[in-house]
Design goal:
451 residues; two-stranded antiparallel sheet; 3% strand
Length: 451
């Protein structure tokens, strides 16, 4: 069964169909924050900025003949920081060490591929903000040296990020039937970073006081690059000036975000599980539910993001292959255990894996997204699977199978429902979507599975 082909469009009449937004504030789960809440958030950012500005920085670094590094420490008191005005930025040293430290948390990894949009947004805003500071603080030849330093720091970071992301995602696609994508992925990451950087630069040129602090008592915040970069991202998103994607080939920003999320969400599923220690004993019913929830994620993901047709086809192929491989691994495990001469209790693996049952559950769960009453449809599919499982724990032909032993029952502890609701919240950007969340009163403890 081609899950990736069949389930696309199940949530079509419920499509989010909203522009992709990478703004760091809009990605929270806050809904229509009150003025007091916004003010409190800004005050927290100001307090953090004050602490950063009062932290000592290293200046006048030089290497001695014996190889040691000499430097001076420079710091400001609270009174000195609060007294800073825009005119004081000329000649004020930039704390490059703080930027390099923050960038250590912006590397692509298998557990963070779903965050690529925010990461590229962050790197682009940092580049543009530091460019502004260089122009304000350094003249002539010294300015050129500082720009070179910025290019080296950010350039190295984005190059390594693009290489890591393309290796991880290219490997995911390669393992699931879509080969030769790594080069296009890397080029697309670099292109999307460049586009966002240009968009921020244009925005700053047209909105010099985007943070709204020039000429106020908070003008000292112009000296804190992290605060200003945060305000740049916030102001850009608030003005709804999301730039047009220029990517005519390869992967656009929403394509990259979608494939990054898909790779992340399938990473710990079933028999590939690292988190759960390679669980080999799930029943067809439980594994069908787990894969079914993954298929629901795929359907909602492709329905939410504006993915190009070529990339959507590749994702469909990859997802179909992923589901097929998961079923195949479960089937092969049982066969291998049955044929292993060191397996003592071969009766535990006497009955082969039922691929069709798993496929039926997966298809039914994905289809529940298109029903008018999602919770009722979802509950019916899950309860049917649970009743099937409970029946097999009492059937003399199946009750001795390893995968139906109570010891291997993880239905009540796997938090499948919580994981699905988290995913919906993440994709909707905190904008509700209660219509496709599983209600709290529904749980996998509805049926006694410990018989």
């Amino acid at each position: 069964m081609k899950v990736g082909q069949n389930i696309r469009g199940h949530a079509g009449d419920r499509s989010l169909s909203q522009p992709f937004n990478t703004n760091f504030l809009n990605n929270s789960n806050l809904k229509s924050p009150q003025k007091a809440e916004v003010s409190a958030s800004v005050n927290v950012h100001k307090e953090e900025a004050l602490r950063r500005m009062m932290s000592p920085i290293l200046v006048n670094l030089s290497k001695k003949e014996d190889g040691t590094i000499s430097f001076d420490k420079r710091s400001y008191s609270q009174e000195e920081v609060l007294a800073i005005r825009e005119s004081d930025l000329e000649g004020m040293d930039i704390n490059w060490a703080s930027l390099e430290l923050r960038l250590t948390n912006r590397n692509a990894s298998a557990s963070s591929t779903d965050n690529i949009a925010n990461d590229l947004d962050y790197l682009a805003s940092q580049y543009v903000q530091f460019s502004q500071r260089i122009k304000q603080s350094y003249p002539g030849e010294e300015q050129a040296d500082q720009f070179q330093k910025l290019e080296t720091i950010i350039g190295t970071q984005i190059e390594e990020y693009a290489e890591s992301f393309s290796t991880i995602i290219g490997g995911f696609l390669e393992n699931n039937g879509v080969s030769g994508e790594q080069t296009a992925l890397k080029a697309s990451v670099l292109s999307q970073f460049q586009q966002r950087k240009e968009q921020y630069q244009t925005f700053v040129e047209q909105n010099e006081n985007f943070a709204g602090i020039r000429g106020t008592a908070d003008e000292w915040l112009l000296a804190d690059n992290q605060f200003m970069a945060e305000q740049l991202r916030h102001a850009y998103a608030k003005e709804n000036v999301e730039g047009q994607d220029k990517e005519n080939k390869g992967y656009g920003m929403e394509d990259l975000a979608a494939v990054g999320i898909l790779a992340k969400e399938t990473r710990n599923v079933g028999y590939n599980s690292r988190q759960l220690g390679y669980n080999k004993h799930k029943s067809e019913e439980e594994f069908g539910v787990e894969l079914g929830l993954t298929a629901m994620k795929f359907s909602l993901l492709t329905d939410t993001y504006d993915i190009s047709d070529s990339v959507k086809t590749k994702l469909g192929t990859a997802f179909d292959t992923f589901i097929d491989k998961q079923n195949q691994k479960a089937e092969e495990y049982i066969i291998n255990r049955r044929n292993d001469p060191f397996t003592r209790d071969k009766e535990s693996y006497a009955v082969g894996w039922d691929n069709s049952l798993v496929s039926e559950i997966v298809s039914s769960m994905a289809g529940s997204l298109g029903e008018n009453d999602f919770n009722a449809a979802f509950k019916q599919v899950v309860n049917t699977a649970m009743q099937s499982y409970a029946g097999k724990t009492q059937d003399e032909q199946t009750d001795s199978l390893s995968r139906y032993h109570p010891y291997h029952n993880t239905w009540n502890t796997a938090n499948y429902i919580g994981d699905w609701n988290r995913f919906v919240e993440r994709l909707s950007g905190g904008n509700g979507r209660d219509d496709i969340k599983v209600s709290n009163h529904l749980s996998f403890s509805t049926v006694d599975l410990s018989i």
